[in-house]
Amino acid sequence: MKENILGVDVCGDTYEQLADKLLEDIEHGRKSFIVAINPEKIMKAQQDEELNHLLNQATYQIPDGIGIILASMLKGGKIRKRVTGIDMMLHLCKEAAIHQKKVFLYGAKPGIADEAKSKLEEMYPGIQIVGTLDGYEKDEQVIEARINESKAEIIFVALGSPTQENWIISHKDKLSPSVYQGVGGSFDVISGRLNRAPAFFQRFGLEWLYRLLKEPWRWKRQLVLPKFLIKVLKG
Ligand code: UDP
Description:
By secondary structure, the protein is of the alpha/beta class. The protein has helices at residues 15-27, 39-47, 49-57, 66-74, 85-99, 112-123, 140-150, 163-171, 186-190, 199-203, 207-214, 219-222, 224-234; strands at residues 2-5, 8-11, 32-37, 60-63, 102-107, 128-133, 154-158, 179-182. Helix 1 packs across helix 5 and helix 4 runs parallel beside helix 13 (224-234). The radius of gyration is 17 Å and the shape is globular. The model has no long low-confidence stretch (mean pLDDT 95). Uridine-5'-diphosphate binds at residues 107-109, 135-136, 158-161, 184-185, 187-188. This is N-acetylglucosaminyldiphosphoundecaprenol N-acetyl-beta-D-mannosaminyltransferase.
């Protein structure tokens, strides 16, 4: 079940439903691509046809952010629960450990993916993280060889948006993994280099408020949320 918000598809599946579908994709050797959708990306896509197409090309567009839930409510849709990029990644890692699926971490500054690997191994004993590569390696042959030799089935790509989405689209057909997820700054958070909002803010969908309190100079970027909701109401 997908809903269309201002021209961009968004999936209504829960973490569990998505994980089941992704495991099935791996079993059948199907390529699937997860992209996190937030109001900022939808607003950018209004002016950027290519980005719009890119987002709609993903297999699963997850509702990352309270703004998407509010938009679905305003439009009479059914999406009521967020599926955040980082929690989707953690959920998939948990399932990968249980079902013995091989994982690759690609992206972030040198050393960070290795630190994230150690943390994930502590969190999900038995997880098979078969390779890591930083996001500043630019030799295409090295990148492809490292990923394919690892025989990974799931790859998390942390290059920032939309670089990671473009990379996934242009590489997935020549690489071994079935499942591709663009995860932005998630390796920085998992490695412990970057703090996530405290649980209270997460529970109530108030990460934006935490960010505003910590980095008040970003307030202008946050105007995108009311602008987005007004556009949804008008559309
Ligand atoms: N990054 C990278 N290679 C690059 C540029 C960026 O690996 O050439 C990484 C960067 O180190 C960071 C992530 O991409 O870990 C970008 O995170 P950000 O939170 O900016 O993601 P976004 O908000 O764009 O999803």
